[in-house]
Amino acid sequence: xxxxxxxxxxxxxxxxxxxxxxxxxxxxxxxxxxxxxxxxxxxxxxxxxxxxxxxxxxxxxxxxxxxxxxxxxxxxxxxxxxxxxxxxxxxxxxxxxxxxxxxxxxxxxxxxxxxxxxxxxxx
Length: 123
Description:
The chain is an all-beta fold and 123 residues long. The protein has a single domain (4-120), classed as Beta-galactosidase, Chain A, domain 5. The chain has no helices and 10 strands.
């Protein structure tokens, strides 16, 4: 099964389905502040030490659960969804995650509503 592809021109890995066998993580960091984000917006944030100085809740080495993260909820009538698919796991009309060097971009749509979220750490 194909889950994505490398975009050599943009220097990104493009994930085309949220249903990967395990979370595909991107590492975001600047100085002593870091964050890990998965292809479904799961992950955690920490300062200097990923195990002892976590700023957001996450069980260390919690693969494959990937249940805590940076979620944005969109409510359209009775439907609630997230551009990164988790935690609602609502079936989307389109989904794309682009992991680049130091950033991740999520773009998805449902019922003619388009959403895009860009995560990057800067000083």
